[in-house]
Specification:
Distance between the termini: 68 Å
Largest sheet: none
Order of helices and strands: HHHHHHHHHHHHHHH
Oligomer: single chain
Shape: elongated
Structural class: mainly alpha
Radius of gyration: 35 Å
Strand content: under 5%
Number of domains: 3
């Protein structure tokens, strides 16, 4: 008889977990025995008035909640690997833990293993692999697979990989080994910091950028200055987010607070570079320049008529000069550049206006290059 692969059992078990067994109330009840017939000679008794029937049985219990796939996957893990897992963890058996971690990761890679089961196997492989340096490679591979199979657990997967890289860096003695381990440690700190910043977890992003900067300077990585700049951008973004939240709350609480409304429009327009969102807060009490230009900017570059292009370009250049953050200044210059380009495409006359637009466009591109920004190809924002 051919041998059944254990994960064929796992797959079937997970599918079967979706079907609930019959509850106690649903079980077939045995039929009640028939009552004996009264003797024919016994006189019939007069009919009695009907009485309300008393309940003869307890109400049926509520059906049990369905077992989740994750819970079933954990049960399956315990049934197959639970004893080995408890043994190596209780004994702090590093070699055994590393070997079992590798075995779990190998099982998780099987094509017939459902993602929920693969995630449990990878989580346990990471937990075991961190017990001993011999399991570190398994942790790195398993954490990568875990993040792919279960995106909701990506943070935990990244934390496991960061732990490995930090331990490898701390354990390195020779300069070359320390530089290599440090570089790998910096890479994962920076990549996860960027993900945290994108998700709005600014404190965690700043913490990781700072740690990456410390290591980068210790091993003299040229990227140290770039890491510091990235940290500064997240700090700016954190301040911007806090101010945006505050102003939005003020305007919501008091729509007649025109000063807060104008500040919110300015923030959305310049620092967030979102003219469409900014236009939603324009009303009859808004600043005259905002009333004139923000609705036009919200329509986009392609909708601007020839003369409006020149006005909007000049206006955006003025906004760039007053921008609080480098990223905001860059965004405003790119907007101005796009409007000057459109003006030059629409305005064929060789006159003073064309000369002005050409000179302004050259100045903008020079400013962008000084800021380390490579302007996109001419023809669009």
């Amino acid at each position: 008889m051919s041998r059944v692969h254990p994960f064929m059992i796992i797959t079937v078990a997970l599918l079967a977990a979706r079907v609930l067994p019959l509850g106690a109330a649903e079980a077939v009840k045995p039929s009640e025995p028939a009552r004996s017939a009264a003797p024919a000679s016994e006189p019939a008794k007069p009919a009695q008035p009907a009485k309300s029937a008393a309940p003869t049985s307890a109400p049926a219990p509520a059906p049990a909640a369905p077992v989740s796939d994750a819970a079933k996957a954990n049960e399956i893990f315990q049934s197959i690997y639970g004893d080995d897992f408890k043994r190596v963890t209780a004994a702090r058996d590093g070699a055994g833990a590393a070997a079992l971690a590798a075995k779990l990761f190998e099982a998780a890679q099987a094509t017939d293993v459902p993602p929920v089961m693969a995630a449990v196997l990878c989580e346990k492989a990471c937990e075991l692999g961190l017990m001993d340096p011999r399991g570190y490679d398994t942790v790195l591979a398993a954490s990568n697979l875990l993040a792919r199979k279960a995106p909701a657990k990506a943070d935990a997967a990244h934390d496991a990989a960061i732990s490995v890289r930090q331990r490898q860096y701390d354990a390195a003695v020779m300069p070359a080994d320390r530089a290599r381990a440090g570089s790998l440690y910096v890479n994962i700190l920076v990549s996860t910091a960027a993900a945290k910043a994108k998700a709005g977890a600014f404190d965690e992003a700043i913490k990781r950028y700072r740690q990456a900067g410390v290591v980068a300077r210790a091993i003299r990585l040229p990227a140290a200055s770039d890491i510091d700049a990235a940290e500064k951008r997240v700090l700016d973004l954190q301040k911007l987010s806090a101010r945006l939240s505050m102003l939005t709350s003020q305007v919501k609480a008091d729509p007649a607070d025109h000063e807060a409304r104008d500040q919110l429009v300015q923030l959305l327009l310049v620092d967030c570079d979102k003219p469409v969102d900014a236009a939603r807060f324009i009303d009859a009490t808004s600043d005259a320049a905002l009333r004139k230009y923000v609705p036009a900017a919200a329509k986009g570059v392609a909708a601007a008529p020839e003369l409006a292009c020149m006005e909007l370009a000049d206006w955006y250049r003025g906004l760039a000069a007053a921008a609080a953050f480098p990223a905001s200044k860059t965004a405003m210059l790119l907007r101005a550049r796009a409007y000057y380009q459109r003006f030059l495409g629409l305005h064929s006359a060789a006159d003073i206006n064309r000369t002005k637009a050409e000179l302004a466009l050259k100045m903008i591109e020079t400013d962008l290059e000084k800021m380390g920004v490579k302007p996109p190809r001419r023809g669009g924002p």
